[in-house]
Amino acid sequence: MSSLPYWNPFDHAVVDNPYPAYRVLRDDAPVYHNEEVGFWAITRFDDVLQAHTDTETFSSARGTTIESSDPDQPFLIAKDPPLHTWHRKIVSRVFTPRRIGGLEPFIRAKAAELLDPHIGSTGFDVIEEFSILLPLAVISELIGLPEEIRGDVHHLCDAFAARADGVTIEPEEAGRAMGELMALLTGVVAERRAHPGDDVVSLLIETPVVDDDGNERFLEDAELGARFVELAFAGHETVAKMIPNGIVALAWYPEQRAELAADASLLPNAVEEMLRWDPPSQYQGRWTTHEMELHGVTIPAEQRVVLITGAATHDERRFDEPELFDIHRHIERHVSLGFGNHLCLGAALARTVTASATTNLERADLIQEYFQTRFSYSTQAASDQSISALDSFLNDKSGYCQQFAATMALMARAVGIPSRVVVGYTRNDLKHWADQTARVMSDGIGPFETVFTSGPGMATEATRAALRAGARLIIAVGGDGTLNEVANGFFDEQGVAIAPDAALGLVPAGTGGDFRRSIGIPQDTKGAVQLLSRESRLIDVGRLTYRAPDGSQASRFFVNVASCGVSGLVDRYVNQSSKRLGGKLSFALGSLRALVVFRDRHLRLQLDGGPWKELAVTSLAVANGQYFGGGMWIAPKAELDDGLLDVTIWSGFGWRDFVLKASRLYDGTHLQLPGVSTSRARKVVAESDEEVLIDLDGEQPGRLPATWEIVPRALRVHGAFAAGGEGQAG
User: Fold this and answer.
1) Contacts of 599 (CB under 8 A, 6+ apart)
2) Where in the chain is the domain with CATH 2.60.200.40?
3) What CATH code is assigned to 538-730?
């Protein structure tokens, strides 16, 4: 057990992203024992499903949380048959298809009411201002809770569920909150008993029940209060988590969000995938009633057993590539809302509210990944006009901005010729540019003209236009993706240099910054601008021909690194993230996420027309520069003007290797690791019968088959050209 990850649901450092640990537990310890806290855990889908249905072995009568063991809890979720059966029949009357169907107009109207004030805003707290308020309003409307106590209900539910990091027993505050919630809702029952109305509370007060002894009676206030506590808690806390989880999924997978926007019939299955991909409840607790054996492990009687829902819904034995979010996935069943006797009574309502929330967020254009805008600019080269245009942009409230289609900027300047700048930043970055970067650049190189882009590819076209107009210095302001687009703009559609005497400069302002390391450009704006006055130098560029997403053949130039394999999947994940953590950490987290699901691809590889080799490859990196992935020193011996591409191949490299050997990748000593091989070539050809994604300077443009070719001394650039790059110099 010592080699297994430590899983403790009270340790926030563990549960912030539990899925890698879940995978190891499923593979290596499907029955896991945490002796310190005192529980067992089951992680595989079939085992969790079986435990849900085997109530004779796995009892709910002592509560479903790890810290609880009280056998006399009044709640339905803490009861076994037959007591559970007749109590459930009572509450099931609340969730009839007619009642849920009748709520749909209210749900739509409430969602619109909550979201409409935020249309066109610069952002809002989706949890506090929407995902909590909508389900709370819906369940309160269904039950008939007075408007004036709904806020108290939420705060008490929240206080009951809250746990400090490392706490393994139910805190006193949680017990006090539950007591207050019980008192509050029992008071509602007493008030309705005295003054009946046309609502669910009054209905259940007046409905007789038959208990397991065959006796007909009416429920007492305390019994009804417990039922309504469960309805209030589960009815809004579950959906309050489902909605933001779904938003995150659609933000990470914008192409699927676009599909949902175009075809509403996909929404029901999308909600099922949201539930599977990141369940609102990560585990359910049970107690063993007798000794039992599973996977060769004996669990004694009277032991707490945790059914880990989040691990089960990511089990590769049940779901193909479970870490990926896929609204087209066929889901026969999942356990995200329980199963068997304890299947969530409000499951249908939860799905209805989540679907309506997603639809209204899309209608309001509030899950928009890209913010696009238009504005005109003067052709006169003046930095104050550039800043004025930026100020105009910053005051533009016509759209909702989460992030731009690309963070890119470029500037062209030549003596007597108007210059151009193309920029695409988030609002905060634009303010920084206007206040600082633009002023530093103006002081360093004189006046320039600014042009802003709103989508991928525009920097390439703007560069071509500037060069054809006579500009002879183009400066890319941004990261490696920006630089790649600008570098491609130095060549026309047929790959011919537009202005061989023109030069490219770089002012780093994005994530990654790998090419700047090879060329010796500092991160700070002032230092980078000072290098623009130095003499430029010719370097090689790579040309990559590959298969585009639509199946056609495409071709792009690259100045740094173009790779395939897990790096292509990493690009997809990193570019779907906010990147607010910085290039190195964003890449590390994206790499871990990709390596968890990635398996080596079988490639056919040919170098310089030589014999074909069959290889199992984690990643194939073809490098002109030395760095990629936010500072990985992937090709320490690469030179920018030697007429050769450095080829590095990793095989059998999993997420454990990444965690344990990450430092070797950043200091360049990974070349001595088993499974790593290197070579040099002018032309590299790779084919595969599997889907193998390509990484091109931090972007993911397509897949194999692909051909890499070196184009010697094809691009003039400004830089310090430090020998050996940052890694060697440091």
Assistant:
1) none
2) 538-730
3) 2.60.200.40
Cis link prior to 20 (omega < 30° from 0)? no
Name the nearest CA neighbour of 393 among 433, 364, 441, 440: 433
**Separation between Cα atoms, residue 110 and residue 150, nearest integer Å:** 15
Return the closest-CA partner of residue 154 out of 122, 180, 175, 193.
180
Residue 604 buriedness (CB in 10 A; 0-12 / 13-18 / 19+): middle
Answer for the pair 305, 285: CB distance below 8 angstroms, yes or no: yes
- Alpha carbons within 13 angstroms on the beta-carbon side of residue 298 total 4
Residue 478: how many CB atoms within 10 A of its CB? 29
Work out the widest C-alpha separation in the chain, in whole angstroms.
98
Lowest mean pLDDT among 105-109, 115-119, 363-367, 490-494: 363-367
What CATH number does the domain located at 370-510 have?
3.40.50
pLDDT in tens, 504-551: 988 887 656 889 998 888 888 778 888 877 788 999 999 999 999 888
Residue limits of CATH 3.40.50 in the chain: 370-510
Helix axes 150-161, 221-252, angle to 10 degrees: 80
Domain 12-363 has CATH 1.10.630.10: yes
- Give pTM, 2 decimals: 0.49
Q: From residue 615, how far is each of 124, 568, 603, 604 by CA, in Å?
A: 49, 18, 5, 6
User: Which residues of the chain are in CATH 1.10.630.10 domains?
Assistant: 12-363
> How far, in Å, CA of 539 to CA of 519, rounded?
10
167 pLDDT more than 70 = no
**In angstroms, how far is the first alpha carbon of the chain from the final one?**
40
